Each structure stands twice: as C-alpha cells, then as structure tokens.
Amino acid sequence: MPNTINAYPIGTLGLAWGSEERAAWLAQQKIQRSYLAEVISPLTTLLLDRDSPLPDAAELVEYGVLDYQAQGFAQYPLYAVRSRNWQVDRPTVLVTGGVHGYETSGVQGALQFIAQHFAQYSAQVNLLVLPCISPWGYETINRWNPNAIDPNRSFVADSASAEAATALAFVHAQAEKVRVHIDLHETTDTDNSEFGPAKAARDGLAFEYHDIPDGFYLVGDTENPAPEFQQALIAAVSKVTHIAEADAAGCLIGEPLEQFGVINYAKKALGLCGGMSNATFVTTTEVYPDSPNASPIQCNQAQVVTVCAAIDFSLRNSNTERAT
C-alpha cells in the first residue's frame, strides 16, 4: 500500500496540537484494564511465595510514583525487581517492559521472566527488571502518557516524560554500568490505525503508512549493532514463533534490513529506552500480537526467550566490552 494521509478526528494538517487539542485527545482516553490487578498483584504474589526460590533471589523496589490525579486519573506506584544479592563484580542485566503501555506482551513477558527465570540467572548476574514503565498507558492501552508525550522518545536529559525521567534516574542510581539491556515491545495493527495517525496529527504532519511486519523482529542500535548478538536472539526466538520477513523493498517498518529479522535505530539520538545506558549488548524486541500465526502465549514466550538468550550470549562472551 502506498503512503497515505489518514484523517484523525483531532487537529488540522499542518498545525501542531496546542493545549485545546491535547485536552480533546485526553478526554477520549478511558481506563480499560487494571495495572493493580494485572501487574502489581501478580508481582507481589510472586515475591511473597515462600515455596519459590524467588523471594530469596529478588526484592521488590518502589522507585517512584506517577501522579495523574489532576488529569482525572490515579497515582501509579512504579516497581522494579532487583537482585537481592547484588554484587558489584557481576555483570548487570537490565530488562524494561511497558515503556509503551499498550504493548501487552512486553509487560506480561517481563513478569513471566521474573516468575520463571529470575532466580536461576540471579546466581550469575545482577538483574534489574522494570516490568511496566508506563502504567497509565497500560491501563488505557495507550502509546503516550496523559500529556500526549511518547515515553519512548523521551529518555533524554530534562525529559518531559515523568515515566522516562523516573526510570532513567533509577537505573543510573542502581547500576553505573549495564552489560545487557533488553527493551520489550510490540508492533501492532493499531500503530497504523490509531497511534501513527495520532502522532502525525499531534505534530501537524501527514501520516506515513508502513506495512506492519507479520512476525517477530529486533531493533538494534545503529551506534552499537552487535550483529552476532542479534543473530543469536533471532535464532532462539525462531523456535517459539515466526520471524518477520522484509517487505519488497528489503525493509521492516520503512527501515532497511540489517540481517534477517533485524533493523537498527539510533537509540540515543531518538531518546529511546534502549539508549538509556551504554550496554555492550542492547536490543529492542518487536512482537506482532495481531498475527493470525501467533498466540498471546507465543508472544509472551518470545519476550522471555529473548531475555534468556541475551543473558546466555553475554555469559558466553564475557570478555566482550563495548568500545566507548
């Protein structure tokens, strides 16, 4: 399909949104699911299960609160799961989920990794998992925060996104050096039907359409592509779900393919979560939950497998360090 201009019900082409348009957009956002029920409660239950090795390996840390009461919503406590036996001489692995709250398997995959694998890997590495960075986005199934700001373009100094700023400050305070960072995301059909057109309207631009890839892919870092690392993750995930094929132009979402299942973005320049550290090994997962060939179970499992494969690769290549 050629690039098209999708009309969006708010705003005027050529004019960026002002306060009136942002307020109109916010008025349309509704709570559709519960952060408490689907994220906090399962997380606290896991950490209290004395029949599991997890409580001895992990601790729950509240690293901040998002206050959106003035916008008619709630306060959202922010949680991370951290290795209880943190050792400065061990490599640190950072896992982030729910930077875009609507990308469900990023959050649920992080919770599943904590439940199934955290205790095992915490004997070898320091683990820091932020399973849901944008809880308001999770509840409203949204890409942005209530101020129509994309947290995943906001991991910068003096960030306008409280979600990004709070996570960034916490991670930097916890770990001066990160060896592995896996940021868990999805690419969905709503990127073309809602979130892409909304972004274009917000910025006063025409919406540029790209086919949504059918399958899993990774977004590496242009400045630190680590191709063997990306290849190892794709190989691992291909055992649980299918990998996206490039389009006729050799691209995924408009970006040229670097290798099978992998494109690269300039993570730091774009303010992406994946650029928050100088990790030796970094990637962003992109699961396609709308595929007729993938179930929610497979989507969650793809996220988990990626994290495990990333840690395994880093342990096999323990002498590799990123040049700075």
UniProtKB/TrEMBL annotation:
InterPro entries in the record: AstE_AspA_cat (IPR055438), Peptidase_M14 (IPR000834)
Cofactor(s) listed in the protein's UniProt record: Zn(2+)
Entry's transmembrane regions: none
Superkingdom of this protein's organism: Bacteria
UniProt signal peptide: none
Annotated Peptidase M14 domain residues: 33-324
PROSITE patterns linked to this entry: PEPTIDASE_M14 (PS52035)
Alphabetically ordered keywords of this record: Hydrolase, Metal-binding, Zinc
Family to which this protein belongs: Belongs to the peptidase M14 family.
Descriptive protein name: M14 family metallocarboxypeptidase
Organism, scientific name: Deefgea tanakiae
